[in-house]
Amino acid sequence: MTQRTWGIRLSLVVLGFFGCDREKPKLTPSTIPTVSVSRPVVREVVEYEYFTGRTAPQFSVEIRSRASGYLKEMPFKEGDEVKKGDLLFKLDDEPYLSQLKKAQSDLDANKSSLKLAQADNRRAKEILRANVGAISKQDVDKYEATEEQADAAVKASAANVNAYQVSFDFTTIKAPFDGQVGRYNYTVGNLVNADTTTLTTVVSQDPIYVYFDVDEQTLLKVGRRLLERQVDLKAQGSFPVMMALGDEDGFPHLGEINFVDNVISSSTGTLTLRGVFANPANPFGKRLLRPGMFVKVQLPVKKPSSKLLVSERALISDQGRKSVMVVEAQNTVKSVPITVGPLQEDGLRVVETGLSQDDMVIVSGLQFVRPKSQVKMEEVPMVGSKKSVDGAAPPEPRSPRPLPSSALNSNAFPSDGSPSTEQQK
Q1: What is the CATH number assigned to the segment(s) 67-91+171-194?
Q2: Between 420 and 60, where is the model more confident?
Q3: pLDDT of residue 57 exceeding 90
Q4: Strand locations in 312-420 (E)
Q5: From the centroid of its chain, how far is CA 391?
Q6: Which CATH class is domain 93-170?
Q7: Is the separation of the CB atoms in 90 and 173 below 8 Å?
Q8: How, if at all, do strands 87-91 and 208-215 pair?
Q9: Strand partners, 63
Q10: 248-285 per-position pLDDT tens digit
Q11: What is the pTM of this model?
Q12: For the domain with range 49-59+204-303+404-412, which CATH number is right: 3.40.50.970, 3.90.1150.10, 3.10.310.40, 2.40.30.170?
């Protein structure tokens, strides 16, 4: 095909494009979008801080024997709950019983010697009073010294009996407090060395401690509010705290802070706090909480106050700043900057500043609007992100289970702050 032919075809195409009457596209008029709006929810809100903690027993002990011998009895099962004074281990006590019996026999013999010495000394003194020359003063002194020696021998024998009795009692090892016993470290027939062999462990179950670390900024905030009496304290100035396990919604366990460490850690900038919580057994004797569990901790840091709340989906984020779209008069959209607070359990976000109770906040259809645009409103209830399938508001969170008064006895808690103590039988 020649260059001339290409030129002719190109000319025909151009003439056809510009010469034909093309139908112009019809422009449809823009429609006004319909958006869902809601008024902010007004209710009493408590400000909380959240932490991660770990459970620990109130008492923890490694069971060791204070006597050496062979294990003879172990009348408990691994993992059983025991009461204070229950028998855990019994050593072979025959050697200690023999020593105790011998010491008792020596004591009886020395008591007899003392009785004879007392009688001889008494008679010598009577003779001396009746007839001065019948007995010498030297003999009287000898009888007096013999009685004193016999008395000393009796006291020494009594001390030996007490020592052997203690050693004999050490062959019986009992639970030092109510708690759950661990696994066997040794079984019947093994040799146990005094003060070194760990036989098992016992940890208390009810109440249970929760340790968690609070950062310095939160400490300062709570401390200032305490000074200003903005924190709602429980009876007798105790500080409430709530706790939840990893699979629980809300914070159903109510306790109180019963220990605050005295030094902020220089490496982490945190202070260790301890809460105490009830851990009762169910009708089958099982308990929910165990030492060593990771838990969520909720700490109230301000008294309840009236706040406005909006749905999380109504918020617009722009470089860390929050705003919402509000419908004003003549159905005009306006962007309103706000200051937000903590997120609530039902998915509503606290609004500290920027909104009023009568503002109509757009909660659905934000992608269709911009500031100063016109919209049609459809008012709906303000619902958080955690709603039921049928759209109803979520149920109220379960009331926290309070700590029994018996567990709040301050005398029952050690003040050293250590999660466990090592004791001996």
Answers
A1: 2.40.50.100
A2: 60
A3: yes
A4: 316-318, 321-327, 333-343, 348-353, 360-364, 376-379
A5: 35
A6: mainly alpha
A7: yes
A8: unpaired
A9: 200
A10: 887 888 888 888 888 888 888 888 999 999 988 888 88
A11: 0.67
A12: 2.40.30.170
